[in-house]
């Protein structure tokens, strides 16, 4: 048997890697010199960034899903059989069904999961848009909302660095168009002493919030939510009343990572340039699964995946390393219901958001349609 590549995780990162490898290693696959296998948890592939639009009725739910088998290259065996143990010493992965997969190279792309249960009362008292059920409930709540106090509560770590700002500005525009913004107060909370972890974004957001009369509370680390009293309290002792609570929930990595002893919180210690598990030469880590202190975003997963593809192909065909990952991230940012901006940055260049425009908003909507080409490794 030749080089066996096992990909654990059927989301964007794992799918781009599998498709990219197939495109570049077609000859080796035909000869049987290389095999690529993927383990996933669902027969559906979800376009997660599209969930942002569900609460506002701006996307059809059917647009969010494709059959994973149709997104993935047909040459890749895909098993809906979640990994339950990853043994990097024995180079084996055990799945829920009890099957054991051996590998020569492993790619861990297990993503992240919501941890609403970490904050007492959050699941019962808040709305969110990070899964389809939550986004649907938030849509229903917004349909019924006719004014009052809204809190946008940000917890860390979380996926998509710009989502808290996007949902805040989109809420403002949506409620203004509904005619209830004049009797609505929006308060944005953030756990550190500014409005965003990325300082340039914080500096850009402050005047935009001030202009729209959006209030903000910094150093607000959520302690608990009281759904009956409709209050949210911080570890710092601040209690805020709300009529509608929208939360950016805390996230952890996949349970299999913790259970396998590969990293606290489900995040795998990862070399930020090589994208290898620290101490490994045959275990790559991609997307949300890494502990690299950069944005957990789709574009991060995409640029990391491209790097891993190049390196795996080079290692197997030329026996050498191709290139390092430079920390590149690119994010479109919705600044309302009809305008947007964007940021890009890497390990050495900070983000520099530009003036919002309708054109950039349309660029983001166009990318929503192009995502499936991205997942197939064609963009």
How is this structure best described in words?
- It is a single chain.
- This protein has 379 residues and is α/β, with parallel strands linked by helices.
- It has two domains: 3-111 and 254-328, FAD/NAD(P)-binding domain (3-Layer(bba) Sandwich); 117-251, FAD/NAD(P)-binding domain (3-Layer(bba) Sandwich), CATH 3.50.50.60.
- The chain is built from ten helices and 21 strands.
- A five-stranded parallel beta sheet has the order 5-2-1-9-19.
- Helix 1 runs parallel beside helix 9 (298-318).
- It starts with a strand and ends with a helix.
- The model has no long low-confidence stretch (mean pLDDT 96).
Concise structural overview:
The protein has 379 residues and is of the alpha/beta class. The chain contains 10 helices and 21 strands.
Low-confidence stretches: none
**Fourth CATH level, the homologous superfamily of the largest domain:** FAD/NAD(P)-binding domain
What's the end-to-end separation, in Å?
32 Å
Q: Estimate the global geometry from the Cα principal axes.
A: globular
Structural class label: alpha/beta
Enumerate how many helices there are, as a single number: 10
- CATH architecture identity of the largest domain: 3-Layer(bba) Sandwich
Q: What's the CATH class label of the largest domain?
A: Alpha Beta
């Amino acid at each position: 048997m030749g080089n066996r590549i096992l990909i654990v995780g059927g989301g964007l990162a794992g799918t781009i890697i599998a498709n990219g490898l197939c495109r570049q290693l077609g000859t080796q696959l035909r000869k049987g010199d290389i095999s690529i296998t993927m383990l996933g948890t669902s027969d559906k592939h979800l376009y997660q960034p599209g969930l942002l639009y569900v609460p506002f009725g701006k996307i059809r739910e059917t647009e969010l899903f494709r059959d994973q088998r149709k997104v993935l290259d047909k040459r890749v065996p895909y098993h809906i059989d979640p990994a339950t143990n990853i043994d990097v010493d024995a180079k084996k992965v055990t799945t829920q069904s009890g099957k054991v997969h051996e590998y020569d190279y492993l790619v861990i792309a297990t993503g992240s999961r919501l941890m609403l249960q970490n904050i007492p009362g959050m699941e019962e008292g808040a709305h969110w848009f990070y899964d389809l059920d939550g986004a649907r409930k938030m849509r229903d709540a917004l349909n019924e909302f006719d004014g009052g106090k809204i809190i946008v509560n940000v917890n860390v770590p979380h996926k998509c660095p710009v989502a808290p700002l996007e949902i805040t500005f989109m809420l403002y525009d949506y409620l203004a168009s509904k005619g209830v913004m004049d009797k609505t107060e929006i308060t944005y909370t953030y756990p550190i002493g500014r409005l965003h972890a990325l300082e340039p974004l914080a500096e850009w957001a402050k005047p935009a919030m001030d202009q729209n009369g959006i209030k903000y509370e910094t150093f607000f680390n959520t302690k608990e939510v009281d759904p009956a009293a409709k209050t949210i309290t911080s570890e710092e002792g601040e209690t805020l009343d709300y009529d509608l609570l929208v939360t950016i929930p805390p996230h952890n990595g996949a349970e299999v990572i913790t259970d396998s002893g590969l990293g606290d919180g489900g995040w795998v210690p990862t070399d930020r340039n090589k994208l290898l598990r620290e101490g490994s030469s045959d275990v790559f880590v991609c997307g949300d699964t890494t502990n690299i202190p950069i944005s957990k975003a789709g574009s991060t997963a995409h640029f990391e995946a491209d790097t891993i593809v190049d390196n795996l192909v080079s290692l197997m065909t030329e026996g050498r390393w191709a290139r390092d990952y430079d920390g590149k991230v690119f994010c479109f940012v919705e600044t309302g219901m009809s305008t947007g901006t964007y940021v890009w940055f890497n390990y050495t260049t900070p983000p520099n958001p530009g003036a919002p425009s309708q054109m950039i908003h349309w660029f983001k909507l166009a990318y929503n349609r192009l995502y499936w080409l991205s997942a197939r490794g064609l963009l």
